[in-house]
């Protein structure tokens, strides 16, 4: 079944999004699971918001209702944590950080979509992430960073200005980050081997010289990165059967939980607007996917052969 974001968001509120912490008794959750019909309400959405909405895939199952009550508890091996989208209750994220440090794979919010993440330094976690989302060994993954210091550590950095008149792109990029952009940069030697080479220990590695980096402007995501004190490997969440973003963390838990996720951080329903991807490895920054981040004067669109504006 396919429903709109607007309906999904209010459905979560209808089943008890009160903002209270703590575990909900199993009997209480079962009472919700026995409801024969879904609860949904409709409200007017401003046009500027509605234009970003898209459809998300929902498994019609009473089981998904068990994630809808506010709690901090573990169900069937999955830790599901509801937090305030503005980060006012970041203490709830402590067990998530401990899981990440132990090699867990889970879902966190960003300023665009939800992302499946794991610790950059954990080889086994990266392999599990690829297996959970069924990502081919040749497909690249991105890095979610805390700051420019992480970017400078794991890449060769952004182009700098010089006496020959080359635009100082780094100075311009500082106005875009944190924000909804993914910049493709040349990987440095400090990036762990499993991030620059794909495949398991028994398969042939394929070298990759570049990596996508992000600094999301999301308080929950930033709180996790600060507590972890390091970057995360990241890939956005899509339906495994449909080419659609999954925007509701309740649905993500139901779809990917059985595949081996260790946790889901619920900070509300997102909108279907991914990051803008900019390739910084060529002579001029080129947009290879236009997303939420607006085109800057110094960027070239994919179909634009004009020089970068100075």
UniProtKB/TrEMBL annotation:
Name assigned to this protein: Threonylcarbamoyl-AMP synthase
InterPro entries per the UniProt record, alphabetical: DHBP_synth_RibB-like_a/b_dom, Sua5-like_dom, SUA5_domain
Domain of life, source organism: Eukaryota
One protein family per Pfam: Sua5_yciO_yrdC
Xref: NCBIfam families: L-threonylcarbamoyladenylate synthase (TIGR00057)
Compositionally biased residues, Acidic residues: 301-310
PANTHER family xref list: DHBP SYNTHASE RIBB-LIKE ALPHA/BETA DOMAIN-CONTAINING PROTEIN, THREONYLCARBAMOYL-AMP SYNTHASE
Originating species: Solanum pennellii
Alphabetized SUPFAM superfamilies for the sequence: YrdC/RibB (SSF55821)
Gene (name only): LOC107011446
Domain annotation YrdC-like: ranges: 90-293
Region of interest: Disordered: 290-310
């Amino acid at each position: 079944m396919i429903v709109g974001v607007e309906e999904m968001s209010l459905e979560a509120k209808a089943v008890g999004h009160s903002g209270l912490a703590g575990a909900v008794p199993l009997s209480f959750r079962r009472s919700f699971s026995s409801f024969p019909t879904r609860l949904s309400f409709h409200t007017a959405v401003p046009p500027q918001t509605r234009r970003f909405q898209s459809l998300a895939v929902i498994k019609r199952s009473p089981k998904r209702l068990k994630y809808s009550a506010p709690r901090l508890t573990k169900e069937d091996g999955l830790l599901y944590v509801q937090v305030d989208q503005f980060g006012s209750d970041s203490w709830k994220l402590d067990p998530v950080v401990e899981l990440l440090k132990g090699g867990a794979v889970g879902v966190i919010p960003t300023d665009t979509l939800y992302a499946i993440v794991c610790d950059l330094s954990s080889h086994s976690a990266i392999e599990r992430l690829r297996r959970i989302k069924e990502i081919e060994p040749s497909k690249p993954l991105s890095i979610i960073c805390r700051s420019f210091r992480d970017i400078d550590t794991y890449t060769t950095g952004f182009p700098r200005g010089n006496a020959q008149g080359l635009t100082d792109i780094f100075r311009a990029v500082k106005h875009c980050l944190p924000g909804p952009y993914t910049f493709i940069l040349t990987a440095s030697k400090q990036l762990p081997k499993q991030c620059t080479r794909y495949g398991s220990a028994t398969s042939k590695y394929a070298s990759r010289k570049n990596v996508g980096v992000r600094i999301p402007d999301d308080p929950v995501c930033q709180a996790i990165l600060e507590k972890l004190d390091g970057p995360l490997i990241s890939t956005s969440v899509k339906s495994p059967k449909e080419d659609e973003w999954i925007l509701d963390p309740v649905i993500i838990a139901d779809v990917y939980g059985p595949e081996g996720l260790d946790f889901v951080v619920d900070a509300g329903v997102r909108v279907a607007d991914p990051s803008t991807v900019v390739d910084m490895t060529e002579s001029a920054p080129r947009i290879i996917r236009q997303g939420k981040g607006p085109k800057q004067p110094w960027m070239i669109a994919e179909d634009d052969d004009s020089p970068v504006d100075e």
